Amino acid sequence: MKTTAVRLYGKRDLRLETFELPALSEDSILARIISDSVCMSTYKTVEQGAAHKRVPDNVAENPAIIGHELCGVILEVGKKWADKYHAGDKFAVQPVLDPTGSYDTIGYSFGTVGGDSELVMIPNEIIEHGCILPYSGDACFRGSLAEPMSCIIGGFRAFYHNGKEEYTHEMGNVEGGRMAIIGGTGPMGLGAIDYALHGPRKPGLLVVTDINPDRLARAEKIFSPAEAEKDGITLKFINTADMDACSFLRGLTDGKGFDDVLCMAPVRDAVELADKILGRDGCLNFFAGPMDQKFSADFNFYNVHYASTHVVGTSGGTVTDLRIALQMMEQNLIHPEVMITHIGGLDAAIETTMNLPSIPGGKKMIYPGIRLPLTAVADFGANSGNPLFAKLAECCEANGGLWNKEAEQILLNHFNIN
User: Fold this and answer.
1) How far apart are CA 213 and CA 241, in angstroms?
2) At 397, phi and psi to the nearest 5?
3) Is 72:113 a contact under the CB 8 Å cutoff?
4) Residue 206 and residue 231 in contact, taking contact as beta carbons nearer than 8 Å
5) What was the pLDDT predicted at 328?
6) For 21-60, how does the pLDDT look when each residue is reduced to its tens digit (9 = 90+)?
7) What is the pLDDT at residue 164?
8) Model-level pTM?
9) What average pLDDT does this structure show over 235-251?
10) Which tens digit of pLDDT belongs to each residue from 359-411?
11) CA angle, corner 181, sides to 219 and 213, nearest 5?
12) Residue 165 has pLDDT above 80, yes or no
């Protein structure tokens, strides 16, 4: 069976190709990919090619399908897995097969499965590692965003504090505590705000910073401080450009500093600000992944010793994190659609991935079964002469300007994707 997919051959070498998938075996699964969200990690992978630790050394001879934030529908199941998986079931993936072992990862390492593909053949090794997770939600784009949300959930679960009297390392952010998200209005920052406001351990104070006024304004429009106040959370959006950010932010805590700080930008100044605003026993999670393998920043070790400040880093989420994300979306507790600003078809995937840092906005959602230029949700109305975009514009305007399940269904119906 043939598929069309975007394959990685090496550094900055992506190709949209049609090729033959292997036949279904008794231990594999054939599936259709409905949606795939483009991740900055994929851009970094393309920039590095075989030098990336998750990309095989022989990728030039055995190209890998890119895309790991995917949601699909199972078409056929081999005999070995027929009792567990069924045709018609939707699924999301945990892309890393073994977080403590090899670097084999969906979207980086495999030639028959990845998000930027119409059809995929999922091999036994991926299924055996528990990476194919059932998804019963009503919108595939949310299934795609379960993976980035799992990374956020993992970041929150990795916060730790030393306990009141003993060294118990209590895990998770401080409930009712003081939290800051530095550089927090990008797509992952918006997801972090969503989880902080609606997750199981809510802070009492949540401060979100950025230096981009437009992104701050959009974030505040989506997440109303007045609504947060109803849940007992003081939510503040702060533009830290042209100010003594450390003094101002610490002033919001009456000088106590923050219990939990999530740094979303791989920028030296952002990391050092995050360190400076930590309170006693404060935990800094360096969430953003830098491309520079020698990236470093100053960290105050006087405070490490006398104030018990500490740092943790997380890269990706676990299967448990992904299950939590899926459950919360199925229960409508979190709304990852706030991340999405653009949609496009498979023909837009290469250009989008290669130029991701320079394309404004948040998440770009690719629908591999269609052909459509990358288009901003905010620009649907400008294309209202096109009947499809007219319908999408009306639908999104009725949903606060956000991509939504009704809009996705309009899109899929238009292209006869079922």
Assistant:
1) 9
2) -60, -35
3) no
4) no
5) 94
6) 999 999 999 999 999 999 999 999 999 999 999 999 999 9
7) 67
8) 0.90
9) 97
10) 999 999 999 999 999 999 999 999 878 999 999 999 999 999 999 999 999 99
11) 40
12) no
Chain position carrying tokens 């830098």: 290
For 81-104, write each residue's pLDDT tens digit.
Answer: 999 999 999 999 999 998 767 789
CA end-to-end distance (rounded Å), the chain: 18
Are residues 371 and 345 in contact, defined by beta-carbon separation less than 8 angstroms? yes
Q: Are 217 and 188 in contact (CB under 8 A)?
A: no
For residues 223 and 242, give the distance between their C-alpha atoms in angstroms, rounded to a whole number: 24
Averaged over 172-201, what is the pLDDT? 96
Average pLDDT score over residue span 290-300: 92
Question: Closest Cα partner for 161 from 281, 285, 312?
Answer: 281
User: Does residue 320 contact residue 328 with C-beta atoms inside 8 Å?
Assistant: no
Tokens representing residue 187 in the block: 């797509």
